Amino acid sequence: MQGTSSPFPVMRRQELAQSEIAMWKNQECTLTSKDFAILETMYDRRLMLTDGVCQVLRHKLDTARVVFGEDVPDNIVTLNSRVRYRVGELSAQTAIITQDAMAGIVGQSLPLTTARGLALLGLEESACLTLPKQENGIPERILLEEVLFQPETARRQRLKQQRNRGGIHLAYDAGSERDPQTHSDSGDNDPGPSAA
Fold first, then answer.
1. Which are the contacts of 139, defined by CB distance < 8 A and separation ≥ 6?
2. Domain locations in the chain as residue ranges
3. What pLDDT score does 10 carry?
4. How far is the C-alpha of 192 from the C-alpha of 144, rounded, in Å?
5. Which of 26, 86, 123, 142 has the fewest CB atoms within 10 Å, counting from its CB?
6. Whether the model pTM is above 0.85
7. Facing residues of 141 across strands?
């Protein structure tokens, strides 16, 4: 019976593939509107991406909850976030989620063009997922341990600090009765260099 194949192995492979997809398709994903637009552009230009990355990319676009950058929770991975994550039983790694591979930062960045980088984008701290089989044929289990830095949170904190410091100081009030150019408390009537 060489040359003929049983339908069972084919069916079994399809069932396994579907169960692997289900493992990561149930994962919730929250993206900023900016990150979502970047992923849409990546999908339009997907010829350079591997099949595994394309699968994850299509899934994220189909299922993402899109929010404004100001509204994204601080425990969600966004583009340029620094994260600590773990793959399988390996020790934890720290990386910055980047749009493309960055020269000179080998090992410190995780680009969206990789399955791991793309999978982490939009995840919440403590989320765990299993990616479809990669090049080596083995599915990868990824745990997002912590979002160490998120640009949107840093921006919100910076704005809050500026507001707390008083922000803008009024140098001249056009509605005031005093004109700073003609009335001086010091008794010095010299208009200064601007009068020349």
1. 20, 23, 130, 131, 132, 133
2. 9-158
3. 42
4. 62
5. 26
6. no
7. 130
